[in-house]
Amino acid sequence: MSDITLAFLALVLCNLIIRLWLCRRQTASVKHHRGQVPEAFSTAIPLDDHQKAADYTVAKMRLSQIQLLVETVWLLALTLGGGINLLYGWAITLAPADANTHASLLTGLIFLGMLGFASGVIDLPLGIYRQFGLEARFGFNRMTPALFVTDLMRSTLVGTLIALPILSLLLWLLQNAGATTWIWAWLAWMGFNLLLLFLYPVLIAPLFNKFTPMPDSAHKAKLDALLHRCQFHTSGLFVMDGSRRSAHANAYFTGFGRNRRIVLFDTLISQLTPDQLEAVLAHEIGHYKRRHLPKRLLAMSLISLALLWALFQLLEAPWFYQGLGVSIATPATALALFSLVMPLCLLPLTPLSNALSRKHEYEADAYAAKSSQAHALIQALVTMYRENAATLTPDSLYSLFHDSHPPAALRIAHLESKN
Ligand SMILES: [Zn+2]
Q1: Cα 28 to middle of ligand 1, angstroms
Q2: CA-based, 20 to 30 A from 387: which of 45, 181, 310, 372?
Q3: Tens digit of pLDDT for each residue in 308-339?
Q4: From the CA of 191, how far away is ligand 1's center (Å)?
Q5: Is 65 exposed, middle or buried (0-12, 13-18, 19+ CB in 10 A)?
Q6: Buried/exposed code over 332-346 (b: 16+ C-beta within 10 A; e: otherwise)
Q7: Residue 97: band (very low, low, confident or very high) from pLDDT cuts 50, 70, 90
């Protein structure tokens, strides 16, 4: 066994152990605090709800651990187990026989399509269990099996339509790679992502949900006044029929330029008072005013620049393929291997990315406290934790790796200091 293979196995094993260990820590922390609602929430959250959140979190952790094991076995089957070789072999027999550039580009696309399809099939049983087992057991599932199937077909189709042009371009650039091609690949990648971000709210999201302009109500009057006060221009306040799929509630801010809109789940509007909803919207506006989206985009663009550079370097490195059990060195197998292995190398970076995101959450909260009311946001958050059965007692290390939002207690304490 080569050194590269050993190093790869060590990397896979380290990742698995660390992530399983984090899940176990989270389970232990939640179970440890199950008997008592934390002091700061004792008046707002009944013990029953607190225990439901604990059981829900424990059940989610169990599922995550199974998912981690399945993912690891699948990764090893594709690489050292010869799965990529096998799929590429099939792709060759399906693509036209002559070996010109177009034919090999087509072979590459067929191969990536089969890989994506096979990975989707592997994920499916756990996806079904998550929706109709776990979510249903805790009263969150609102999806019918028919909707699940339509969603699956629709997202596969949309995913294929989105992936096809950018993957073709990327494979073509890899096939004709020169010293600086990675910069072109990066420009194309960023341009494509910005285009998606621009089109997502008007073209893609409506394929899955209904978005209706918010009707006049006490809620809407409050929100309009806030938008005016903050001088925030938007193409509108939209209500999304989130209740079609799930009882979980949320609000988000999407798109940019002409397509900028604020989306509120119908489930959220039914849970919050006008004051609380105003505070939630003020938080979302805070993200915009503090320029969090451009900052995240900048961070993302630097990371993808580094990743694309690495991909183009590995393209011509025989050890990369051989060490990971792949006998066919082509742009498509390089791309597949790279996207399978890179997440393992990025694990140490997730706490950094989460730290940036939490910093942004605190800043948006501070903005909401200034332009709306801190105590209304606290009430809204408590309601959302309760209704979503989100744990109030996460493990701090697990949280560092998994949570893009600050833990409940810290977030409320921060808001109280602004009160
Ligand atoms: Zn936020």
Answers
A1: 27
A2: 372
A3: 999 999 999 999 999 999 999 999 999 999 99
A4: 25
A5: middle
A6: bbbbbbbebbeeeee
A7: low
